[in-house]
Design a protein that fits this description.
- There is one protein chain.
- About 10% of the residues lie in helices and about 25% in strands.
- It is mostly beta strands.
- Bound molecules: iron/sulfur cluster (2 copies).
- The site of one iron/sulfur cluster (SF4) has 13 residues, from loops.
Amino acid sequence: MSRPQPKGTVVIDTARCKGCELCIPACPPAVLRMSTRRNASGYLLPELLEGCTGCGACLLVCPDYCFEVYRLEGDKQAGAQPSPSAADGARSGRVADTRELPVAQEIQ
Ligand code: SF4
Ligand code: SF4
């Protein structure tokens, strides 16, 4: 029996993004893709699809520190606690309960 995939989400600081696309292939479940949206500097922006595991790979690869990563394992009603992601302790990675977050948030 396989373990259930951990769930997570990311917050992308789109104002910092330079559109380098390094985060796209770095995402193991391939839930990041480039969108057609641009920030004020004219750079194309990534967007998050369903299925983020909160692994933190995007946070580690992004040269412009655009990502905050949130991860939750278990069920809140069952008393689950937020758990560290791979990015915890590295760069500006942050861990939180994702229940209060939409699938993806962007900081303008
Ligand atoms: S945390 Fe992991 S799964 Fe989620 S978007 Fe970043 S690289 Fe992809
Ligand atoms: S790696 Fe960072 S700077 Fe490059 S496209 Fe992704 S979010 Fe933007």
